[in-house]
Amino acid sequence: MPDFLTRNLTVKVLALLVALFLWAVVNGQREELRQIDVPLVLPELADSLTYLEHPGESVSVTFRAPAGRLFWFRLAPPVLAPVFSLSVTDTTQTVTVRQDFLDLPRQFEGSVLDFTPDFLRVRIGEMGELELPVLVEVGRSPLPPWRLRAQPRALPGRVTVRGPLEILEHMRNRRVHTEPLDLQGLEGIVVLEAELINPNPRLEISPERVEVEVLLENTAAEAGDLDLPVGAP
Question: Mind listing the pLDDT tens digit for each residue in 181-203?
Answer without folding.
Answer: 999 999 999 999 999 999 999 99
